[in-house]
Design brief:
The complex is a heterodimer of chains A (254) and B (443). Helices cover 41% and strands 9% of the residues of chain A. In chain A, the strands form 2 sheets. A 5-stranded mixed β-sheet of chain A has the order 1-4-3-5-6, with helices on one face. A two-stranded antiparallel sheet of chain A has the order 2-7. In chain A, 35% of the residues are buried. With 443 residues, chain B is α/β, with parallel strands linked by helices. Helices cover 47% and strands 8% of the residues of chain B. Chain B has 18 helices and 8 strands. Chain B has a 6-stranded mixed β-sheet with strand order 1-2-3-6-8-7, sandwiched between helices. In chain B, strands 4-5 form a two-stranded antiparallel ribbon. The N and C termini of chain B lie far apart (50 Å). The chains are: A alpha/beta (254), B alpha/beta (443).
């Protein structure tokens, strides 16, 4: 039988990026829409960069990973991931970022978040600390190692723990999930067949059920280990940082 | 004419070609090619694929927006629509990024459809089902020639979904034994206390009891759909997923989804059709005679499965399911499974799940049993029986419009089962088992 290197259910879920999709809509809910009248009379204008950052960042001071969609990407992660390489390290590193995806019309001159992408050739994505400092712009054609270097350096600036070490541990956890999932699928298939053939009281069904329960308990242990590895601990705000963190007027919907 | 080839909105800020944004992709393509001719061919293909996406919907080539054509289709209007209480379609387009939604308002629905074009399916059964739908549409849309359709362009997909939604509405009202005239007019007073004595509570408005029409938003990508749901609703609390939502100010139900949700489970037209039917069926049931309280999941979920499986026995959908494995999405012979499990006494009795309003602990077999029980009630009784049951279960608000508490609702359900189907849960379960053994093969 050929070896299948694809990740299984639990690992696949863990490798999803937790995107935020902020939309600047401070006036939403203030007006009632009546039949025949629209709400597009409002004036739209680009916010200053600092204000735009306040709108998109998280409450927890996580560093930011901001990607804008484009016609080529069509909602995929093409600008961030590399189709020909293993992206697991990139995906795991995003766990310590507040990941933001903006629509492709963010480059319109009057889009509220336009000034996040400045310059004649605006970047496709950028990473920065929660206050916008130490920004690293990328055009979507960066190498994986360039991306990892930028991600690791920002994580190091904002977190206490060692991300590189944590990623190694997390990859082992994912391998553990895969081993359990593969065995679970096999046992559950056999259990289903046994239930249909012999009924739930058969010794075979009871034994299979016990094995399934043991595997589920093992998976729970891995969940605990995973949570420990993910908890790198945000560094406390320094005096300089505290001064740069004005209260956010929550207008953007995530 | 292919509407997707029409003029596109290109703002100066977006004048760089997508390929220029992704030279890596281009380099990759060229590196893999040895000969000049092959390289040219691939470059040409890449250019075609990397077209700037539509930013506004082109005019409908089928109706041309003509009033007589819209009338023939039973549309109220196309283009900008009122949507919920605090946002309309223009606002949605502006906030989400000028997505080329096709907006259609029918008698009972407001539909926003930005599904991409798609080839006519190769699968024989899917193609036959689609042809029948196109034939039906062509009767009201003279410009459409079903036999020459090779591709479902975005406008044609929008017209098909408008037809499918109205057809589902008709199916549901037939099951419920009601006509639109049974519900309060738009300007009618809606508090129970305002109603004449002994008049039945039929909700607050004309759309099965809702004031607002049913909203259906079919987005091109999950990112767009999530952006919509997180901006205008509180439906998402974590995972990005298709969602149903009730706008209380507008008194209207929404269903929003995208083809790439569920790891791309709804990419095919048939899968999306089944998915929409399942979820909109839930909204229709919730809306019927007003949305004041949660109703038992076994028959609500069961009826949604019945209506979805009328479209396709594949493409399983669940509101909630307690299964981690792919089995739930790959097992389609529900009749055989239910019968096998019942032979081993492994089906939970109806009485055990009767009053649950959520199906968080339902596994595949529980879902299949709910589908089977509702199929039995529809098949083994007069059509009016299910209508009576629905009538008794919904709209049970007091004179102030307040819903019944759970204990009262449980009693109402037992009485409704007795009145509509002539049995208590155990008796009906016994009768269902006999019916099932007659109808379903054992394996």
């Amino acid at each position: 039988m050929p070896i299948d290197f694809r990740r299984l259910e639990t690992s696949k879920n863990r490798l999803d990026i937790d995107w935020n999709y902020p939309v600047y809509a401070p006036d939403l809910g203030q007006e009632k829409v009546e039949d025949g009248r629209t709400t597009t009379g409002r004036v739209r204008a680009a916010l200053p960069r600092e204000r735009a950052l306040l709108e998109i960042r998280s409450e927890t001071r996580m560093p930011l990973l901001v990607v804008r969609e484009c016609g080529f990407c069509k909602g995929t992660e093409e600008a961030l991931l590399n189709r020909r390489l293993n992206n697991e390290k990139t995906l795991l590193l995003t766990k310590w970022f507040h990941c933001v995806k903006l629509p492709n019309h963010v480059l319109d001159a009057d889009h509220p978040f336009r000034n996040l992408f400045e310059g004649e050739h605006p970047p496709h994505l950028f990473l920065c600390r929660h206050d916008g400092s130490e920004a690293v712009a990328m055009d979507g054609q960066q190498t994986q190692s360039e991306l990892w270097d930028a991600m690791l350096s920002l994580i190091e600036a904002d977190y206490e723990g060692d991300a590189a070490k944590a990623v190694k541990g997390l990859l082992r956890v994912l391998d553990g999930y895969d081993a359990i999932d593969a065995r679970l699928v096999e046992l559950q298939d056999r259990l289903e067949a046994t239930l249909d053939e012999d009924g739930p009281r058969s010794a075979k069904a009871k034994k299979l059920q016990r094995q399934v329960d043991e595997l589920i308990a093992d998976r729970e242990k891995l969940v605990t280990r995973e949570a420990e590895l993910l908890d790198l601990g945000l560094k406390p705000l320094g005096e300089k940082d505290a001064g740069q963190a004005p209260k956010k007027e929550a207008a953007a919907r995530r | 004419m292919n509407p997707s080839r029409n003029t596109r909105d290109r703002s100066p800020a977006r004048s760089g070609s997508p390929s220029a944004e992704h030279p890596r992709a281009c380099r990759r393509a060229f590196r893999t090619l040895r000969g000049f001719v092959a390289a040219c061919l691939v470059a040409a293909t890449a250019t075609a694929q990397d077209e700037e996406p539509e930013r506004t919907a082109p005019p409908d080539p089928y109706t041309g927006g003509r009033a007589d054509a819209l009338d023939a289709l039973g549309y109220v209007r196309m283009g900008r629509l009122t949507w919920a209480s605090d946002h309309d379609t223009a606002r949605i387009e502006e906030d989400l990024g000028k997505i080329p939604f096709r907006w259609i308002e029918t008698a009972h629905f407001r539909l926003g459809c930005a599904l991409p074009k798609q080839d006519v399916p190769r699968d024989k059964e899917d193609r036959k089902a689609l042809r029948e739908e196109l034939d039906e549409l062509a009767q009201r849309l003279p410009g459409l020639k079903p036999r020459s359709v090779r591709e479902l362009d975005p406008w044609l997909r929008a017209h098909l979904f408008a037809q499918r939604l109205e057809s589902l509405y008709e199916r549901f009202t037939t099951l419920a034994g009601v006509a639109d005239t049974a519900f309060p007019a738009e300007d009618a007073p809606f508090f129970r206390g305002d109603a004449p004595p002994n008049q039945k509570w039929m909700g607050r408005g004309p759309h099965l009891g809702m004031k607002g029409k049913f909203l259906v938003l079919l987005c091109p990508t999950g990112a767009t759909c999530t952006r919509y749901l997180r901006t205008y609703t509180e439906a998402l609390h974590g995972d990005e997923m298709p969602s149903r939502w009730y706008f209380d100010q507008a008194d209207a139900f929404l269903f929003a989804t995208a083809p790439d949700y569920g790891d791309g489970a709804f990419q095919s037209d048939r899968a999306m059709h089944a998915h929409v039917v399942f979820n909109v069926a839930h909204n229709l049931i919730d809306a019927f005679k007003g949305y004041s309280y949660e109703i038992p999941a076994w028959w609500k979920e069961g009826l949604a499965h019945v209506l979805r499986r009328e479209v396709s026995t594949e493409h399983n959908n669940f509101s909630e399911i307690d299964e981690n494995s792919q089995r739930a999405y790959q097992t389609f012979d529900w009749d055989v499974k239910v019968r096998q499990r019942d032979d081993n006494g492994l089906i939970r009795p109806l009485a055990e799940i009767l009053d649950k309003t959520r199906c968080t602990d339902f596994d595949l077999i529980d879902h299949a049993a709910c589908w089977s029980r509702v199929s039995f009630l529809l098949d083994a009784r007069e059509p009016s029986s299910f209508a009576t049951f629905l009538d008794r279960m919904k709209g049970q608000v007091d004179s102030q419009g307040a819903p019944p508490d759970p204990a009262v609702l449980a009693r109402i359900q037992r009485d409704a089962l007795e009145e509509a189907f002539g049995g208590d849960p155990d008796a009906l379960d016994a009768e269902w088992r006999t019916w099932m053994r007659r109808r379903y093969r054992s394996r």
